[in-house]
Design a protein that fits this description.
By secondary structure, this protein is an alpha+beta fold. The chain folds into two domains: 3-7 and 78-340 and 408-433, Alpha-Beta Complex (Creatine Amidinohydrolase); 343-406, Arc Repressor Mutant, subunit A. The protein is built from eleven helices and 21 strands. The strands form six sheets. Strands 1, 4, 11, 12, 13, 14, 20 and 21 form an eight-stranded antiparallel β-sheet that branches. Strands 5-7-8 form a three-stranded antiparallel β-sheet. The chain has a three-stranded antiparallel β-sheet with strand order 6-19-15, with no helix packed on it. The two termini are 17 Å apart.
Length: 440
């Protein structure tokens, strides 16, 4: 989920000139209930009368077969990831050893001990990452032009909830695990923060470029990862530019890396590409007022940002940080503005007590606190919980700075934007690209 540079801060940001070339649900409870009878489940010794009146025969029923644990995922994904990986043995992400002054960390006993202390943290993150991989890989197979954005979003979100085992309909359930933030489906010149509200009839077209950005969380550990889908080869260079720029940012990230310098590398890679669309050649530009960001427990946007253009920001990445490295490329101005109907919201984490006059706002805030906390949500999530006529109360919460609204972020109309994103853990011993998969 994209972080945006405040307009005031953007004015003070020194931006280098970029080159612009010319041309997944089984319930184990049932299994345990059956196991209690397995092996000694004889019929109440059904008696058969003997022709001699002698001893009666006992006829035993064959033991019931135990249900086998699932070993593979279904389509659509509905098997909980925790069933596929017993004892929390989830796959690791891509582990990259530190270099130069930090090379000692890989074998250092103290650093390895610190890593071992984080076993629960890593298990939660790896579970969330595996859910993300399985869901997105299924989504990439089944998403086709002609589907509505609502169908696509629900395909992804229903799968995430099934694979984490938390449907989010009971009070507080979504706070345990499930969606880390709403599934963004931003088309063409819209770069981020668009998901359909109730009644949306928008249909994915053959000529569209769609950014698919969704988060998965387990106990507040959020994996934020995104990719772009296009169905026409004319957009290939645009997608390649952004994918390679994101990978460059991931490579440069690590302990003591300065975020402004990472932004410079991202920009250099991004803007070395151009794309020809319908006879016109466009330079691919980094969207300068969008950034990557740190991720905190139950908070998608932390305190540090990773620009995607060169800047003088000397902030360092540090041991224990979790970063979302995301880049956006555009054939337009390389600058986004708020545009369109809001769908994404999140409760502000450090909000002070506010006396709310509207009873609807008070009631809605109670729903938000119990179900989402500071995790982002959208209007469709409130609809799922049975909330009605909540817009007045929601707007009141926004106006009182209790809830933050995230409008869609768009470049100029007629342009095309793309996005790729990975979550990385700056561990004591290695950098782990937790969201890495075979797809990207």
């Amino acid at each position: 989920m994209a972080a945006q540079i405040p307009t005031e801060a953007l004015k003070e940001l020194k931006v280098a000139e970029g080159t612009q070339p010319a041309g997944q649900a089984g319930n184990s409870a049932n299994g345990h209930a059956e196991d209690a009878h397995d092996g000694e489940d004889s019929e109440d010794e059904a008696e058969e009368p003997s022709t001699t009146g002698a001893a009666k025969k006992k006829k035993k029923r064959k033991p019931k077969k135990k249900k086998k644990a699932p070993t593979s995922q279904t389509e659509p994904p509905r098997v909980m990831v925790s069933q596929l990986f017993p004892n929390k043995t989830y796959p690791k992400g891509e582990e990259v050893e530190y270099l130069n002054d930090n090379a000692y960390r890989t074998t250092n006993e103290e650093k390895r001990h610190l890593d071992n202390l984080n076993s629960e943290f890593l298990a939660d993150y790896r579970e969330a990452a595996e859910v993300h991989r399985q869901v997105r890989q299924y989504a990439q197979k089944v998403i086709k032009p002609g589907q509505t954005l609502t169908e696509i979003a629900e395909t992804i979100e229903d799968s995430v909830r099934a694979l984490t085992g938390h449907q989010g309909l009971e009070e507080g359930d979504a706070h345990i695990a499930g969606m880390g933030f709403p599934c963004g489906l931003s088309l063409n010149h819209c770069a981020a923060h668009y998901t359909p509200n109730a009644g949306n009839k928008m249909v994915l077209q053959q000529n569209d470029v769609m950014k698919v950005d969704f988060g998965v969380h387990v106990n507040g550990k959020i994996v934020d990862s995104a990719f772009t889908m296009a169905f026409e080869p004319k957009y290939d260079n645009l997608l390649q530019a952004v994918r390679e720029a994101t990978n460059a940012g991931v490579r440069e990230a690590g302990i003591d890396a300065r975020v402004g310098e990472i932004g410079g590398v991202i920009q250099e890679v991004m803007e070395s590409f151009e794309v020809e669309i319908d006879g016109t050649t466009y330079p691919v530009k980094s969207i300068r007022n969008l950034t990557g960001h740190t991720i905190l427990p139950y908070s998608i946007h932390g305190t540090k940002a990773v620009p995607i253009v060169k800047s003088n920001d000397q902030t360092k990445m540090e041991e224990g940080d979790v970063f979302a490295i995301e880049t956006f490329g555009s054939t337009g101005n390389g600058y986004v503005r708020d545009d369109g109907e809001v769908s994404h919201y999140a409760k502000v984490g450090d909000v002070q007590h506010v006396d709310l006059r509207l009873s609807s706002a008070k009631a809605l805030l109670n729903v938000i606190n119990k179900n989402f906390g500071t995790l982002p949500f959208c209007r469709r999530y409130l609809d799922r919980l049975g909330q009605e006529k909540y817009l007045l109360g929601l707007n009141s919460l926004v106006q009182n700075d209790i809830v933050e609204a995230y409008p869609p972020l768009c470049d100029k109309k007629g342009s095309y934007t793309a996005q790729y994103e990975h979550t990385i853990l700056i561990r004591p011993t290695v950098k782990e690209v937790i969201s890495r998969g075979e797809d990207y």
